[in-house]
Amino acid sequence: MNATGSDGRGEAPASGRTPPMPQLVIELRDLVVEYFKQETVVPLKQLGRYVTFGLLGALLLGLGAVLLGVGGLRALQIETGSTFTGNLSWVPYLIMVVVLLGVGLATWQGRGAVKRRREAR
Prior knowledge:
mainly alpha; 2 helices
């Protein structure tokens, strides 16, 4: 209980008198501020974390795909000997573009299947 006999929750004191108007205004302001924090600030912080981790994950997956593509290209250029030399030097690039597009398409299709499965529940 505080000095006015109220317990700080807006309830009337035990003597039956209502708290003074300035105290009610302060309590209302505190209540509105707490509600605002609960309903906006906290969800925005959670959304910020979700977006941050999502972007970080996408960046790392993209970097990994680029490195695997370059590694596959170098493997095709080096390990095939003289197969892709001269006028055929562009073929390893075409192969890697097709492979990366195929992996991307398979990922996109798999994502759609998971989404359809969730919607079916």
